[in-house]
Structures are given as structure tokens and as C-alpha cells.
Amino acid sequence: GNGCGHTLLTPHSGTLSSKNYPGTYPNHTMCCWRLQAPPGTSILLAFGDVDLEPSEHCAHSSLLLADPQTGTAYGPYCRNSVPSASLLVTNSSTVTVLFNSTSHRSGRGLLVSYATSQHPGMGCRDILGMWSSDPLLSMHFSVYCPAGCKDIHGDIWGNPSQGYRDTSVLCKAAVHAGVIADELGGQVTLSREKGITLYESAFANGLRSKRGSLSEKRLVFHKVCNLLFPDCDDVLEVVTFNASSWWHEVDVLGQDRAWVAERAALSTTGHSWAAEPGAKAAWLELDLGTRRNVTGIITKGSSEQHNYYVMSYHVSSSRDGKNWRPYRGSSGQEDKVFEGNADSQGEVSNAFIPPIIARYIR
Questions:
Q1: I need a labelling partner for 302 at 20 to 30 A (CA). Which of 16, 76, 110, 200 fits?
Q2: Is pLDDT of 73 > 60?
């Protein structure tokens, strides 16, 4: 319907919101979502926000949930008739969510997340109230983040290496940290540690975090691979660089400068690699020497005299250097386009979820 806002639905979890959320939702609009979980499971709904203008029996604006398998209805909900609990446990693998409005003056609308009964602790927004007051129990915590939290309203402060200010939207920060893919969601493990003086911003996995000041506590995410393999975040050594072409620049003094493939290493000072001007479908190839587990990539532009950078790119991998497989990410439906740099100065991180197992990367 014309009242649908941000929506990402998968068989195991998802996120949905009304149009313009968290701004005022429009007049005379409706949206109907049908949630379908695998057989044998039931759906849990987390009400992140239900702010619909009050009216008698919620006649002007309402949220109504229906369980067609049992014939049970929940609601209608609006500002003067809110859900009695932030988490609704149904007994069905199918739930219909109906939102509608007539004329009204105010209201943010709604934000709802869902997951299956296999993931009882979940929600995109504020779950920090679930932390234990016991310091020993608070060191580590595990929650389930539903799919679709990346684009919900709210800010994050910090980056994957130093952690995040504890006022950050938690599941959005988990996407930024690269511990889950937004299109799938997933279980995240984190700890609540002592805060730091300053949180530096970073662009990672399609999200820009903010630069933030001191906080009492900070959130630190733990990748599964860190728990099993402590060196999984080590920088992999590239044995050989190759490229489809490279630029041989002749400067104003007539001197030749070669932007060759070897200059693509992140630690290289001076100019970087660049394809020949006008080249079609340019590529850069990395030979890791042996088959490795590749969990992510960091890109940076060329900052010496030139404002050159790559805005987006595809990734392919090969085990023999001859047969190439495009990376399609967790959805597996189409080749994934990674969001790259917006300037030549900053580094941008993108995680591979699932990881790539290969010797050659393009």
C-alpha cells in the first residue's frame, strides 16, 4: 500500500515501518505486510515504536495484527491503546500486519521488527535495558538483530576497532561493525566496557558513524571468528598484484609516472594504482599465494596531488586464477555492489558475510 515505509522481510526476521517514519505519517494511507516464517516456528514481534494519533477505538489511525492460523487478532493499537508489552509472542508462523490512517495531525507512525521463536531476544532499537546490573554477568551479552536495521532512524558513534558509544542504536552499529549482514540479520555477541574520551567516525558497510564525545560505557562487538580463530582479522599478505591495465602518466615536466598494480597496497605512500584512462571494466587482482579465508576489504583513494577514488565495485574470487565466481553476499541473488569511497583521504571497510575462501581476489 501507499503507507509502507522502510521494509525488509526474510523468512527468519525483518523490519517494517510506516511511510516517513519517524516523521509524521501521511493521511488516508494504508499498508499490509504478510510475515511468513518456516513451518514449525512461530513469529515474535518487537514493537520499537507505535505512535499513532489517539482516537476512540483507534478509529482514525491503527495497527492491527492478525494470526490467520489460529484466528487470533491483536489490537487495534494507537497512542491511547498501546501494546501491553514491547514483545508479542504469537503461536503462528504467519502473521498479517495492517496499518491504516484517516485524517490526523500528529504521530511518528510505527517501527516493528520480527523474528522466529528460534531467536527470542531481538529488536533493532533500544535493548540496552536488558543488560544485567551484575558486572560479572554484564561482561558479555548476546542478542538477535533482525534483518533491516541498517536503514532505521538513529545514530551510531565510533567504529569497529575502538567500539561504539553506548547510546548508539545497537543493531545498526552491528551492521557498521561488519558482524552481521543487514539483509539477513543474525546473533551478535558483545561486551559493555569502560567508555573512552573520543569516538572517531568511520564509513563501513554502507553506514557513516558519527564522531562522539566521552561516554560512561561503550559497546564492543565480538566476531564469531575472533572467538574461534584469534587471527581472523589479520591483514593478509598479497604475493602478487595484477591489473587489467595501468596508467602511464606524463606530468607537466615530461616525466613518466607509472600507476602500476603493485601500488595498490594500502600502505603504499605516494600515488596508487589506476587503470588506463577510458578503460572499460577495469579490474585489480590480488594473489594471496595460497587459499585463505577472506573476511573483508579496506579501500582508500590516491591522496597525492589527485582526488582519485573508487565509488563502488564488484568482487570476484578464484581458487585457480582461471575460473572466477562473483561475490553475491548473503542474499545470493545478484552480484553484490560494494559502496566505496567518497573522497581520496578516508579508509572505507566492507565485510564479506559469508567470508570468501580463495587464493585470488579481483
A1: 200
A2: yes
